[in-house]
Amino acid sequence: MYLQKINLKNKYALVTGAGKGLGKACSIALAEAGATVIALSRTPSDLDKLEKQIKKIKGKIIKVPCDVMDYEDLKKKIDKIKIIDVLVNNAGTNIPEPFEKVKQKSMNYLVDLNLKAAFNVAQLVVKKMLKNKKRPGSIINMSSQLGHVGMSGRNVYNMTKFGIEGLTKGMGVELAKNNIRVNTVAPTFVETPMVKKFFKNKKFINKMLRNIPLGRVAQESDVATAVAFLAADSSEMITGTSLVVDGGWTAQ
Amino acid sequence: MGIFLKDISLKGKTALITGATKGLGRGAAEAIAEAGGNIIAVGRNQSELNSLGKKIKKLKVKYTSFNCDVNNYNKIKNFITNLKKLDILVNNAGTNIPENFLNVKKTSLETLLNVNTKAVFNIAQLCANQIIKLKRKQGSIINISSIFGLVAGQKRTVYSMTKFGVEGLTKGMALDLAKYNIRVNSVCPNIVLTPRTKKYFSDKKYNKYVKESTPINKVVTISDVATSITFLASEASSMITGTSIIIDGGWTAK
Fold this sequence. Notes:
The structure holds 2 protein chains of 2 kinds.
Chain A: E1 12-15, H1 21-32, E2 36-41, H2 44-56, E3 60-65, H3 71-80, E4 86-89, H4 104-131, E5 137-142, H5 155-175, E6 180-187, H6 193-199, H7 202-211, H8 220-231, E7 242-245
Parallel strand pairs in A: 1-2, 1-4, 2-3, 4-5, 5-6, 6-7
Chain B: E1 14-18, H1 23-34, E2 38-43, H2 46-58, E3 63-67, H3 73-80, E4 88-91, H4 106-133, E5 139-144, H5 157-177, E6 182-189, H6 198-201, H7 204-213, H8 222-233, E7 244-247
Parallel strand pairs in B: 1-2, 1-4, 2-3, 4-5, 5-6, 6-7
Helix pairs in contact in B: 1-8, 3-4, 4-5
């Protein structure tokens, strides 16, 4: 009676960056919780692979090939979707460079993808959610521990992820009256394809593990479970906050 | 257990809950039992401990109760150091005496520091030592904090002092206990409707203050908090430590 299970039956969940890494893991976890996943990715072949995996667990998926940085196409594709209950605003990237050497090109790209596209996706999805007033909405913006603390060589990423934390609080406060909750998940380094290339550097991984009190990096399932928890009504009074999945990194 | 979705399951785990007879503690005990965990309930009211036992046993998990004041250090120490099984602590016993800062009585200050800070520390230390002694592969401690562990509230100076303290303790414990794979987190609820807070809500002015401070137009329920506690207790949150789950309908986001 007191425990609310992570249950997403009859919910429609849009996931951006669903083709790889965290987005893929979140898509599968949401399908496991019973949601119909609306998977967005630039790469159709990645979507095909995801479809196979989701079908294997008898889950439901709608594939939407789309570049979130192409606003007109994004708008068109989201307009066509009838119902969205959950958004996992996940598409994002990182280009680590020392502050004084950050290239204009990388700065522009990170801001355009991690902030501008994330904002646009959220706004388009909220407009859709407002049309189905009776269905509660939940938005999970993918942040990072680097949305809470700084790290050398991650200046632009820091800027964008702190921005996501700010956007989340603003949206959380404003959309509460519409029964739409907005939160972030802020993971430490996760074993994903994007991050694995940094792991090859022994010095880097040792330094990193020294900063994670639990002494291990996060797995995709750790983050995907946190996302599913926030997506479901099991967290119905949680909004405008951040679920930090960092093994203690930011507690220090 | 899915490929990427971990279950909130506590089968085979044993959880000690302080302040287990009423409100949040009782909700946490029931939710943990619903997830399959065995319950050790600590409280001061024998008939309520008995009635909780009846409910818990219906869920087919083990139930032990211990009638004890959390401030009776020797008695609680003797109990915890003799436990044969322990994986989870819900460090819940706490109280509040709302008074204007200028009028806070010495006795209220003393009570709040004893219950919300010293007893919370002592029980956490005793349980952590016991989990380590029993060589459990993992442990999880959940300290019950509050939004007033993050921001201030009217007539809540001492309460805030103790709950900000619990937030600090949580982070510090998380660092010291990580090497034993014991995770330590807090939950920070908004004002939950419980037997203790019922009287606050009957005050019209206070009701309005809470309503206007909470963007989501609902009161936090015991179930909302108990679910987060159970999530933190379980391996579904195995990389979460040293942090807080804030269950406040947006109060602190403003």
